[in-house]
Design brief:
The protein is α+β, with helices and mostly antiparallel strands. It has two domains: 89 residues, Orthogonal Bundle (Arc Repressor Mutant, subunit A); 167 residues, Beta-Lactamase, CATH 3.30.450.40. Strand 6 and strand 7 form a beta hairpin. Helix 1 crosses helix 3, helix 2 packs across helix 3 and helix 5 runs antiparallel to helix 9. The longest helix has 21 residues.
Amino acid sequence: MADTALSGKAEMEGEERAPVREVSVPAVVRAAAMLRLLSNAAAPLGVNQIARELDIIPSTCLHILRALTAEGLVAVDLATKRYRLGLEILNLAKVALRGSISDQAQPYLDEIVRQYMVTAFAVSISAPEHYIVTAKSNSPHAIRLQVDLGSRFPALVSATGRCVAAYSNLPPRALKAQFERLRWHRAPSFEEWQAQVANVPAQGYAVDDGNYINGVYIAASPILGPEGEFRHALVVLCIRQGWSEADLQALAETVRHSAAQVAEGLRLSVRAKAK
């Protein structure tokens, strides 16, 4: 994690400001890495395992874990000496999501589920190569597709990935390198995928019809930032069997319309500005 600071002392009025430089704080970087590791772990982890995974000296690892535990961000089982995320993470997450895509999208997701009995959720770009689920509404059906808050996916996968790619500045060669690392049930060719990506700006949404998950239809509509970059998307999933093409088209159009409403609430857009 990086922060910015001004080098040197504060200047007198009229003097030139010192240049901004990037400042790396190793302890903060390691603490963040530990939180991410614990969030992805299937079970609590011991100090030595965490240290090995992150290539940190065990004594340093323990020192940081104790500090995180004191702040409630990490919890330790005193019997096993293993660590997991602490409940204070929930309080921070609630504040982070307040007034965000989560708040804005939830009523629209709930309405889509009420109308179509599908699984609906919102995602946000969390890193250059990943997006994360930030809101969800599950179908009341006994047989349903479950998506968890906080789930993280490769940025270019599924229908959402086509939306990400449509507004990416990456050259085709870099996109292809990322595309070839993705895991699909039935991968489209890169050329086919590129053609689908190219349709997103005019169409307002992308679909994945059984490519990512066998027998599952996915539609996603992007929400863009001020510079036309991908920020968020509304996404729906349904079991493909039993749906007509007309019904799937209506579902995708509903997602597109809902994304436009959410974008308006966030003072964002679903269309890139003309350059």
